[in-house]
Amino acid sequence: MHPLLELRHADVWRGDHRVFRDLSLTVGAEESIAILGPNGAGKSTLIKLITGELRAAAEPGTIARLFGEDLWSLEELRHRLGLVSPEEAHRFDVEEPAEGVVLSSLRGAFGLARWMRFSKHDRSRALAAMEKAGIAHLAKRPYGELSSGERRRFLLARALVHEPQALLLDEPTTALDFPSSLAFIQIVRALVRSGHGVLWVTHHPSEIPPETSRVILLKEGRIFADGPPRKTLTSSILSELYGLPLTVRWSGGFCHVTAAHS
């Protein structure tokens, strides 16, 4: 299987600002990876590279491929990469049934329209995705009656309905309360254990699932550290990353970070 992302000597610009200079990075489609870093580190730019919204500058010696392709279409990527972004939760009609979040993804839309028709196979795929996300019993409930955590899990089912090669989770627990965050993390853990590739982008080390095999730390547009969680999420490395004294401890496979005592 081709890597999800392959960059070699890539410069990436956003307007007049160069975010990445001479960046080399390979992200496997079947890996379980967390990307972490402070504001301005380059996380959002990396997400846009992976989703095809941004491209690396075309320079001699530069390689920039998604799923092994130098050229790609956003339509094709939508079927190969499942994206969960909290901002999408506000793009659906509160009156329509919640299953519309998932079914409409099969038509490349945000919400149902009168012209849409779905086969038994379509509905079976949607049901399977909702079952994986643990919200099949809420399929007929009006979207507006769902809690924030339930809406987030419908976004996950929406991403899963295409049976993508990898999932990209862009700060997926933002604005969720603790029980909802925990429920979401547990579902993702089950997906990783069942063989799904997951790329989890976050500000919070404590929510990185124990099944994560690799952590990439970004700082000021460069790769600050890259390796197994226990080797990258250490007191010294995170203290340097964030510029303040921090203490790391591990419990139940999760990394917990607190301010170091003076």
How does this model look, in words?
With 262 residues, the chain is an alpha/beta fold. It has a domain at 1-67 and 193-262: 3-Layer(aba) Sandwich (Rossmann fold). It is built from eight helices and eleven strands. The chain has helices spanning 43-50, 74-80, 99-103, 120-132, 148-160, 178-193, 229-232, 235-242; strands at 5-14, 17-27, 32-36, 63-66, 81-84, 166-170, 197-202, 214-219, 222-227, 246-251, 254-259. It has a six-stranded mixed sheet with strand order 5-6-7-3-8-9. A hairpin with a 2-residue loop joins strand 10 (246-251) and strand 11. The protein is globular and about 50 Å long.
Which fold name corresponds to the CATH topology of the domain at 1-67 and 193-262? Rossmann fold
Number of helices: 8
Question: What does the average pLDDT come to?
Answer: 94
CATH class of the domain at 1-67 and 193-262: Alpha Beta
pLDDT < 50 runs, ≥5 residues: none
Helix % is: 25-40%
SSE ordering: EEEHEHEHHHEHEEEHHEE
The radius of gyration is 19 Å
What layout of secondary structure does this protein have?
Layout: E1 5-14, E2 17-27, E3 32-36, H1 43-50, E4 63-66, H2 74-80, E5 81-84, H3 99-103, H4 120-132, H5 148-160, E6 166-170, H6 178-193, E7 197-202, E8 214-219, E9 222-227, H7 229-232, H8 235-242, E10 246-251, E11 254-259
Parallel strand pairs: 3-7, 3-8, 5-6, 6-7
Antiparallel strand pairs: 1-2, 1-4, 8-9, 10-11
Helix pairs in contact: 4-5, 5-6
